[in-house]
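hey
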């Protein structure tokens, strides 16, 4: 059996929270249900115990509350227009924009890798390339010092 450090377990729980949040935001996109109702529904998901429940619900609530603001960050970087985005890719990009803007304890490379991984698994074919490019373009806006120090390392 592989033993994981507490940090590795926490990272896995946050990854699962992002995956469930992507699904929840897709549901919100399709139904318009309130965030609290969606969060409660996901408590019955088989993968919910593997997730960080607080992080999951925070993502869902704050992305829904700030979706117009987050779309404003994304729109300049989407060549064909934000309205053409697949709902899954759109949910993933909103999570990435939210994390870039608010979760400075999460390195930008982790934000991008998580977004790309979710898109490869759940998004349209080759959409991960667009998600990677758009998320990368958010870095100078939200994490200029982190980008600079990563370049210097």
């Amino acid at each position: 059996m592989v033993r994981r450090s507490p940090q590795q377990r926490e990272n896995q729980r946050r990854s699962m929270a992002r995956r469930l949040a992507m699904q929840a935001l897709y549901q919100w996109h399709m139904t318009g249900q309130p965030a609290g109702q969606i969060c409660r529904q996901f408590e019955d998901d088989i993968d919910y115990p593997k997730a960080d429940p607080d992080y999951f619900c925070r993502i869902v609530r704050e992305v829904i509350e700030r979706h117009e603001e987050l779309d404003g960050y994304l729109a300049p970087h989407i060549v064909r227009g934000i309205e053409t985005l697949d709902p899954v890719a759109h949910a993933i990009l909103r999570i990435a924009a939210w994390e870039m803007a608010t979760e400075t304890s999460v390195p930008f490379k982790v934000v991008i890798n998580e977004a790309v991984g979710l898109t490869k698994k759940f998004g349209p074919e080759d959409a991960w390339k667009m998600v990677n490019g758009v998320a990368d373009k958010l870095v100078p806006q939200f994490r200029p010092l982190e980008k600079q120090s990563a370049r210097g390392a």
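The radius of gyration is 15 Å. The chain is about 75% helix and 0% strand.
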